[in-house]
Amino acid sequence: MPMVLDRRSVLWGGLSVLSLAAFNTPALAQAARLRMIWWGSQERADRTNKAIAAFKGVKPDITIAGEFAGWSDYWPRLATQVAGRNAPDVIQMDYRYIFEYARRGALAPLDDYIGKALKIDDFGKANVDSGRVDGKLFGVNLGVNSSVVIYDKAAWEKTGAKAPSMGQTWEEFAENAIAFGKKKPKPGYFATADASGLEPSFENYLRQNKKALFAADGQLGYEPADVAAWFKMWQDMRKGGGCVPADVQALDQLNIESNALTTGKAATAFAHSNQFVGYQALNKAKLALTAYPKVSASSPSGHYLKPSMLMSVSATSQNVPNAVDFINFLVANPAGVDLLGVERGVPASTAMRDQLTTKLDEVSKAMVEYIAAITPAVDPLPINPPQGAGELAFVLTRVSQEVAFGRITPEEGGERMVSEATRTLSRK
Amino acid sequence: MALHSEILSKESRPAALRSRGAFGGVLERNAAGYVFLLPWLLGFFGLTLGPALASLYLSFTNYDLLQSPDWVGAANYVRILTDDPKFSAAMQVTFTYVILSVPLKLAFALAVAMAFNRGIKGLTLYRAIFYLPSLLGSSVAIAVLWRQLFASDGLINMALWQLFGFEGPSWISNPDYALYTLVMLSIWQFGSPMIIFLAGLRQIPTDMYEAAQMDGAGKARQFFKITLPLLTPVIFFNGVIQTIEAFKAFTPAFIISEGTGGPINSTLFYTLYLYQEAFGFFRMGYASALAWILVIIISLFTAFSFLGARYWVHYDD
């Protein structure tokens, strides 16, 4: 018998040592350890990691472990971590997704910190409110941006075609793209990427037509004819040799790295203004940027200023005050703001923007000037997207591919987009 | 050490054993075995059975990952089977993939195994080399490599251009071809069925071939009358395993379409659709129901394979 007892005591002893080790570590640790997650390119990762290191200088007892992913991997990863009660403390949020997360109780409200640890008073009401969901602050604006046309000016000029410019109409843009195609410098190179499946581009076009992605009642804000006209315009460019063919566009994974401009297939990309920094970092050619073409000279610009991204804190974080300190460092402390630069958009804080602009390089300055140039003609933020809206971007891409590959006509594409979008939104 | 001495000590104290109940005795005798099994048992209950049962429960709820689930009855199953065009698209893609990739892969594996079975020099080396793609199998790196090979300016198109002056399309991003590049990736990973075929071929007695040769049977006839019939148990085994694997394929499609199943759902594998619903669109309850339907499909497929096997599989007894 003593042998049996021996074994048991060894087992239990072992187990209790294990459990001691497991439960005591957090209590023994002195410094706060935070995790942060974001999406973006290597350029953004480098800047963010520098900011994290600099924060260590300000608050030596807070350690921040960063992780990042590409846009399309980011959301599944975040959803899994949140569901597994393992959410990072500091979460980079998108204007579209913040509603999904905040309304499901996954984010911590930050209203109590405003004016204290979170000095965002000089953001202006619109920029603070862009982080509010149903009246409460769940995200801090990390930078202001808008849609943008990014192009390789020299490539356009070489063909003699007129490059995109402020105030150009879509009709002129398409004509120029086709002219570019006729004199293109090398086979397999086109004037522009195909933006027909990009939701932000489609939204811009809708707003120029005084429509919107979503109406006030949460229903669709457009009709089949609107989508059909959009698809038709791109089809004409595609058939005229102005924009990349369907199978080249299908390689685009909605990031800077795989865009036709970066992969050397096209001279023009439709993107977000803050991405200009990332695009220039990956492209040898000198890039320029301008506003979207318009449906007519007198139409609205379609642009609006939106938070390029927001910083949120997980509702389950044990370190909300520390997380807020770090966010404040990124948006209201010159040391942090300068490291992030304008790669995430133009800082919302007037004071930060003013002190930063003087230190910027040429690329970043061009981006800030672009935002200043379009600001007089921007319209307000669109209404909050309804539940299920996130899926519609994928639907648009797929239907646009069906049109581009010649499976259906633009008119059929319009019908299909509206019927599938309506179905998706009605799903509970 | 404690365990070891306990086992040894057992022999020396049969009286203690007898004094316990029969059940206690069995437990006592097998305790060491169960302790050694513990890692596997923990894995099975904690990582396989537990989550599987949880997903069965979740499949009857509207779980969205972030909020606690509400019971919705069979609504998810009803929707999948009656009102989900993406489900039909995913089924079509998956069945096409299974029906094409499994027979082709087996045929290829058998052909390579037959070549090896002729007793070439350095067989072990060749076997290892040909097995290599299967080791890299479902890895992300291979899928990325495949993406590079079959892109518009990838290696395949460069070769086509140099050799035939043919300007190939972008295979992986064209809905007409994308799935077939994935089928080819699967065939290329023929290693494990090949090894099993090779072992099966070794089992066939050589005197049978000698006898057939004396009776004047040619190579082709020997293959169809001796090799194939005697190999049917191995073919059956490989077929079932590879079919299940093919139904579960995920990584290549995920990497090649960057998780979208595109272009135009042409690579929307069932597992990829399931993943999108669960983690892309916050519909974990619905995705759980999709997972259970896949379990039923694979079970049915396997059951029918076994039922059909008696008509064509010859066991040597």
Automatic annotation (TrEMBL), chain A:
Keywords: Periplasm. Its main location: periplasm. GO terms for cellular component: periplasmic space. Pfam families: SBP_bac_8 (PF13416). Gene3D superfamilies: Periplasmic binding protein-like II. It is found in: Periplasm. SUPFAM superfamilies: Periplasmic binding protein-like II. Transmembrane segments: none annotated. Belongs to the bacterial solute-binding protein 1 family. This is Carbohydrate ABC transporter substrate-binding protein. It comes from Neorhizobium lilium. The lineage of its organism: Bacteria, Pseudomonadati, Pseudomonadota, Alphaproteobacteria, Hyphomicrobiales.
